[in-house]
Amino acid sequence: MSQDTNSVVEIGRLTRDAELTYTGSGFPISKFSIAVNKTKKGADGTYTDYASFFDVVLFGKTAEALKQYLLKGKQVVINGELEQQRWEKDGQQHSKVVINAYNIQLLGGDKPQGNQQQPANTYNQQQPQQQQGYQQPPQNYQQPRQSYQQPQQQFSDYGQTNCGFTEDIPF
């Protein structure tokens, strides 16, 4: 039996706060929707913005841990797979496609809606301020390197046909 590939990556903004529920056995499930914005060029040469909307389902401890951050307007990257859900209601067949997320990455750029406040433990990219009770690092603490610089190499034979190799290449 062959297996096909089912993988999707979307970058979008939450259209509503995530809803965290639990199964009868206590397994966490978080549901939310994202809007993925795109610009399309029309036949007349004008550009039009439009959005595609996707329902997302996130499972397990990740669903619990990210609940407080998955708020309306938050930009996220979703890695997952598509699942077509089918059901019958009042004799009518229904279906929809959802993204079952197995990895989610929070991006910056919150767009708070109205007078909505950010949660107290949202990551803040401002420089830390000196606060009362701040402890200096130990004296043997070494500051991490800021950047890695690769050593400069001089190629005196650059441009030669053998590119500096003295032996023939074996392939």
Question: How would you characterize this protein structure?
Answer:
The protein has a domain at 8-106: Beta Barrel (OB fold (Dihydrolipoamide Acetyltransferase, E2P)), CATH 2.40.50.140. It is built from 1 helix and 6 strands; from the N terminus they run E-E-E-E-H-E-E. The protein has one helix at residues 60-66, and strands at residues 8-14, 19-22, 28-41, 47-59, 75-89, 92-106. It has a 5-stranded mixed beta barrel with strand order 1-3-4-6-5.
Report the CATH C-level class of the domain at 8-106. Answer: Mainly Beta
Distance between the termini: 39 Å
Can you count the helices?
1
Percent helix range: under 10%
The mean pLDDT is: 76
**CATH T-level topology of the domain at 8-106:** OB fold (Dihydrolipoamide Acetyltransferase, E2P)
Helix/strand-derived category reads mainly beta
> What is the CA-based Rg, rounded?
26 Å
Characterize the overall form: globular
Please describe the topology of this protein.
Layout: E1 8-14, E2 19-22, E3 28-41, E4 47-59, H1 60-66, E5 75-89, E6 92-106
Parallel strand pairs: 4-6
Antiparallel strand pairs: 1-3, 1-5, 2-3, 3-4, 5-6
Question: What brief labels describe this structure?
Answer:
mainly beta, 1 helix, 5-stranded mixed β-barrel
In short:
The protein is mainly beta.
